[in-house]
Amino acid sequence: MNDTANPDTAPPNGFQVRLTNFEGPFDLLLQLIFAHRLDVTEVALHQVTDDFIAYTKAIGAQLDLEETTAFLVVAATLLDLKAARLLPAGQVDDDEDLALLEVRDLLFARLLQYRAFKHVAEMFAELEATALRSYPRAVSLEDRFAGLLPEVMLGVDAERFAEIAAVALTPRPAPKVATAHLHEQTVSVAEQAKHLLAMLQARAAANGPHFLSWSPTVRRRSRWWDASWRCSNCIGPER
User: Fold this and answer.
1) What is the sign of the dihedral through the CA atoms of 196, 201, 203 and 208?
2) Where does the chain show beta strands of DSSP type E?
3) In a domain, 60, yes or no
4) Which structural domain range is residue 40 located in?
5) Could you report the per-residue pLDDT of 209-232, keeping only the tens digit for each?
6) Is the pLDDT of residue 111 over 80?
7) Which of 64, 107, 155, 226 has its CA 20 to 30 A from that of 141?
8) What's the number of domains the chain is made of?
9) Of the candidates 221, 222, 203, 224, the residue with the CA atom closest to the CA atom of residue 212
10) Residue 62, Cβ neighbours under 10 Å: how many?
11) What are 5-19's pLDDT values in tens digits?
12) How confident is residue 26, by pLDDT bands cut at 50, 70 and 90?
């Protein structure tokens, strides 16, 4: 089949399918398959694909991406469904054949799901078009209708209403994160400084005289850390 077409001859109502046993819109072809009035094994899917390619070339820049995507999804599903339908429908003993039959049912369910989504999308489009033709009322209610409004019954007096408003408008305290469940290990800075000094002295052999030259400085710093920590934590145990 020739896959080129003149844009002037493009069908005005969307993609049309022309087969030996069917001629009409692509959606109608799907409906006939859904209603079991047309067997998917009797549909020449390669011819449908060629017609769609010619259709896309005919409309050129006016090609709808959503329509093309929908056709590819449905055509691929129909192809899988047709391949699964070619299996025998009798007694199935092989597990692989049984799995293929289950796949066939899933493919048909996928087509039904696609059809349902498409109908819902059309309903939403109609609702959107209707809403675009509606405008909100920009004026106040007329007196003849205002008198029909029911009286507002609060069920409380003014004093009780003031109490409710006071409670609702009272600033609430900021939430606090409790830390009592956290385990805080108590350590002594002096002990840790001595431990660090002992580790440095144990590795003094690697540094030689250089380590011995600043070792007194480390001792003075450790005593300074201990004194500073005690001053900043005069209350409570050492940490």
Assistant:
1) positive
2) 16-18, 23-25
3) yes
4) 25-87+99-131
5) 555 555 565 556 656 665 665 555
6) no
7) 155
8) 1
9) 203
10) 9
11) 333 444 445 566 666
12) low
Q: What is the full DSSP assignment across 82-94? A: HHHHTS--S----
Q: Does residue 192 fall inside a structural domain?
A: no
pLDDT in the model for residue 190 = 79
| Residue 235: predicted pLDDT | 46
* Cα gap 175→3, rounded to integer Å: 70
Position 81 in a domain: yes
SS3 per-residue string spanning 1-55? CCCCCCHHHCCCCCCEEECCCCEEEHHHHHHHHHCCCCCHHHCCHHHHHHHHHHH
- 9 dihedral zone (left: phi>0; alpha: psi -120 to 50; beta): alpha
Tokens 């796949």: give the residue: 103
Q: What is the dihedral of CA 88, 94, 95, 99, to 10 degrees?
A: -10
User: Is residue 80 assigned to a domain?
Assistant: yes
Higher-confidence position of 83 and 159:
159
